[in-house]
Write a structure and sequence with these properties.
InterPro entries: ASHA1/2-like_C, START-like_dom_sf
Strand order of the largest sheet: 1-7-6-5-4-3-2
Protein name: Polyketide cyclase
Domain Activator of Hsp90 ATPase homologue 1/2-like C-terminal: 9-132
Shape: globular
Family: Belongs to the AHA1 family.
Radius of gyration: 14 Å
Distance between the termini: 31 Å
CATH architecture: 2-Layer Sandwich
Helix content: 25-40%
């Protein structure tokens, strides 16, 4: 598994809401400024499904990131299986500095692990920036 982390200077309630509500997901779920997320749906419950469309702003590429939740513990943890069968685990922990998010996921085999780590970390950094500035 690849593991990433970041600490968000915000309340746990705000972090959880911004992580889980589609109107917020579309504002941070992309890895670089030349991409965006035009669509997101999220049924945050065990057995619920999610889908986020990630698109290049120039229209050259687009894909749907989707999966199904296997564990949801309000304000604590989210586990899911991606559409291709890979698994991901996310924990949310309050600290004196803010909410620490630790995200671990099974890498895919198409791209180098460092590239995947960089892309997912960039998305997590976008999340931090979005939450802290709104």
């Amino acid at each position: 598994m690849i593991t990433l982390k970041n600490t968000i200077n915000a309340s746990l309630d705000k972090v959880w809401d911004f992580w889980s509500k589609p109107e917020h997901i579309t504002k941070w779920a992309f890895a670089s400024p030349d991409w965006y997320a035009p669509y997101a749906e999220n049924d945050l419950r065990e057995g619920g499904k999610f889908s986020t469309t990630m698109s290049a702003k120039d229209g050259s590429m687009s894909f749907d990131f989707l999966g199904e939740y296997t564990l949801v513990k309000q304000d604590q943890a989210i586990n899911y299986v991606m559409g291709d069968g890979r698994k991901a685990v996310i924990t949310f922990t309050e600290t004196p500095e803010g909410v620490e998010i630790i995200e671990s996921f099974d890498p895919e085999t198409e791209n180098p692990e460092e590239m995947q780590r960089g892309g997912w970390q960039a998305i997590l950094d976008n999340f931090k920036n979005y939450v802290e500035s709104n």
